[in-house]
Amino acid sequence: MKSIKTLRFGLIGTGMMGKEFASAVMRWSHLLDMDIKPEIVSVCSEHITEEKARWYTEGLKTVHQVTRNWKEVIDSSEVDALYIAVPNHLHEEMYKGAVRAGKHLMGEKPFGIDRAANLAIMKSITRNPDVFVRCACQWHFAPAIQRLCSIIEQGRLGRIIEVEAGFLHSSDLNPEKPINWKRVVKYNGEYGCMGDLGMHILAIPIRAGWYPRNVRAVLSDIVKERPDGKGGRACCETWDNAVLLCETEADTGEVFPMTLKTHRIAPGEKNTWYLNVYGTKTSVKVSTKQINTINILEYSGGDQAWQVIDTGYETAYPTISAPLFEFGGIDSIFQMWAAFLYEFSVGKPKSLFSGCTTPDEAVWSHELFTAALESADKKKTVEVTEPRREGR
Fold first, then answer.
1. Sign of the CA dihedral 39, 41, 47, 49?
2. Helix (H, G, I), strand (E, B) or coil at 292
3. Is-contact 108 91, C-beta < 8 A?
4. pLDDT tens column, 126-180
5. pLDDT above 90 covers what percent of the chain?
6. H-run or E-run covering 133
7. Global confidence as pTM
8. Cα gap 90→353, rounded to integer Å
9. How many CB atoms lie within 10 A of CB 263?
10. How far is CA 63 from CA 17, 25, 39, 137, 176, in A?
11. Tens of pLDDT along 77-112?
């Protein structure tokens, strides 16, 4: 019987994404052909309650440390790796602390509240090259989206005509929804909805070598105040919606327009991620609204006809589920964690697009969002600085 390695995790941040990770750990036996498994041994939140702690300790019998002090988790000799899912203003201190302590890291986007914080994190990563670090982005692991990625990797698009990508929420459509940290610059940062949602839609373009060279941004502040949860009203300081038009250059030298949308106020949506790529030979459209469907148009000089193909549970990392089963959004998170542990164990992902988002790829988001803020402020097109690797 094949021996299974164990990677012992500390979890810092016990909100929704922390629970999703714990749920993935609980069902790890669903995966096939994995020589490594995660084990959560420590759970931390500054505001953890007895009830929330019990959810983790009863569901995960391996948890033997529950604390409000994140430094205790990082200092623990029982912890090999960390998943840090905390508000953006905490990224720099915690990520740097984790990497300096030699803990492997899965960190939430945007990997720092702003460009300066991201640069500081990247310097720590460079100084600790033996630490494995990735950024949490899950949507590209859906089988339909993996099929789109395969078309990109095989070079079937021809010359790229245009790219459209977006992540559309309706969670803030109700103006009476109480304010949370994502509406406060001190905690979320100036990027607003771009920092919250943007890395998700940039993950595939950046991995594909499609780099935004400039941007014209229109940023919208739609709901200007919300209930503060204490009987009063509080000012909403961050951008609700963003539309970015980028002149984009592929690593082949081709230049094409790319439109990026990150909306927290999108009527009619729930949690919709989409990517449309139009090429002279093949065009492809995918959306999580129909997560098991891919639309493909292959053109060779005759009629133009979109074909709609249903995909099943045909995942990058095989599971016990039959291919005819349908895939769901939560399964994307499960596949992301399989990708993290697989690459940690093997040293590389199975294919170009079946790996987790890298810190270097997250740097691109900071350069783009920083330029977008300037573009919106000055109402003009702004050049996007290509990330430098010196000192990182």
1. positive
2. coil
3. yes
4. 999 999 999 999 999 999 999 999 999 999 999 999 999 999 999 899 999 999 9
5. 97
6. strand 133-136
7. 0.96
8. 29
9. 23
10. 17, 12, 8, 25, 38
11. 999 999 999 999 999 999 999 999 999 999 999 999
Residue 218 tokens read as 């229109």
Amino acid at 248: T
pLDDT single digits (tens) 261-291: 999 999 999 999 999 999 999 999 999 999 9
Please, are residues 264 and 197 in contact by the beta-carbon 8 Å criterion? Answer: yes
Give mean pLDDT, residues 344-367.
97
Q: In whole numbers, what is the pLDDT of the chain averaged over residues? A: 96
Sign of the Cα pseudo-torsion (55, 57, 62, 63, in order) = positive
* Beta-carbon contacts of residue 262 (< 8 Å; ≥ 6 apart): 166, 167, 193, 194, 196, 197, 198, 201, 241, 242
Residue 389 clears pLDDT 80, i.e. is over it = no
Contact 131, 105 (CB under 8 A): yes
Complete domains list, the chain, with CATH: 5-136 (3.40.50.720), 140-325+357-378 (3.30.360.10)
E strand or H helix at 234? strand 233-235
Cβ-based neighbour number of residue 65 at 10 Å: 15
Q: What contacts 129, CB < 8 A, 6 or more positions away?
A: none
Question: DSSP string of 175-195?
Answer: TTSPP-GGG-HHHH-TTTHHH
Contact 205, 246 (CB under 8 A): no
Residue 367's identity, in one-letter code, is E
Two tokens, residue 136 = 């949490």
Task: Give Cβ neighbours of residue 291 (< 8 Å, ≥ 6 apart).
Answer: 142, 144, 327, 328, 329
Q: Are 42 and 67 contacting, i.e. CB atoms less than 8 angstroms apart?
A: yes
Q: Residue 61: how many CB atoms within 10 A of its CB?
A: 7
**Cβ–Cβ under 8 Å, residues 130 and 102:** yes
Q: What is the 3-state secondary structure (H, E, C) of 44-109?
A: ECCCCCHHHHHHHHHHCCCCCEEECCHHHHHHCCCCCEEEECCCHHHHHHHHHHHHHCCCEEEEEC
Distance CA 279, CA 381 (A): 25
CA distance 60 to 22: 8
> In the chain, helix, strand, coil percent, each to 5?
35, 30, 40
